[in-house]
Amino acid sequence: MVCGLGKLGAPIAAVFAASSIPVTGFDVDAGKVRALNSNRSPIREADLADYLVMPEVRKNLWATDSAHQAVEMSDACLFVAPTPSLGSGAFDHHHLLSAVSTVAHEVARQRKRKYLFVVNSTVMPGACRDQVTPLLTRLVGPLGFHLAYKPEFIALGRVIQDLHYPDVLLIGESCEEAGGRTEELYGEMVLGHPEVRRMRLVEAELAKISLNCAVTMKISFANQVGLIASRLGADPVAVLAAVGADRRIGSAALRPGLPFGGPCFPRDNRMFLRVAELVGEVAPIALAVDTVNRRVLRGIMDQALVTHGDVGILGMAYKPGTTVLEESAGGLLRSALTQRGRHVKTHDPLATCTHSLDEVLACPTVVVTCACPEYQELTLPRETLLIDPMRVVTRLEVPRSMEVAS
Question: pTM for the whole thing?
């Protein structure tokens, strides 16, 4: 059973079903349930629509808005509930705990023994131990239960690919049997040969946000090098290619240009800071990562304010291949420029925008804030000031081009 059929839950359900595992999807949103039962995608995600019409998926995947039916047809539940950020940087577990409570009540009512509860949502370290476990103990009682924490390391736009070929299977376990059942379940879905790391619940919770923070640290380091390189007249790409050639560092995520954004990296970094504060520690590296990330965006905005007139922004999603605008460079830049009285026109190949590509390209200043392949071979008016931090555009007719490395 997969509880929550949104951006991550629907692909998880489809991938398990494609692996010949019977899956019941559960969601209170009747529209998502109807879509899945009609073999239609309830969300926009690459390859998901194709998966939902596969014979194996049509055979093995069924959705319902009835918790009773979902529990009746399952021995385990994967919880993919939202855990929104609070103003403090901590996460709100209300939706997750509500979903766990709903399923646990049904498990108790149906007298299911040793039911497996798997939390996929990113949570504060200690949440499974201090909040989920007491809840299950109270509701399930002597029937017993197994609890695992299994976060996913995916990027929107390539969720299905990342589910099939993860680098690591990170599993937090309440006991050895809980971890073993979870590992066996995911072994049916994974096509590659990832490392399996099983540990206590709190260790896996901390490992999840620590991994994301390590990635953002590399991104901000690359952008810091880019800022310095631009002052020296050096090519940051060449510099970082040499740095990434050392196997202790590696080239992944070591590309200067845009700040990190999206629904995971910024909030996980802020949550890491909050966790450090709660346990009486400080996390100066995480703070520096956030500071550099903001500095990069300010640098791009400063370049955009050099000229007068409208500013066009190409790419409003936080990354190519998705419609997600959450904390995207394009969205943040648009807000910042608008606050300074500039009129902004935006375009994106997938995300909803109010202007056509031609309207954006007609602006005196054009900023590329997402590395969409659709922008690689653009031809702009000769007088256009192009700000292209990621060097996306490979063919253009503009003598006055700014390639901002930060």
Answer: 0.92
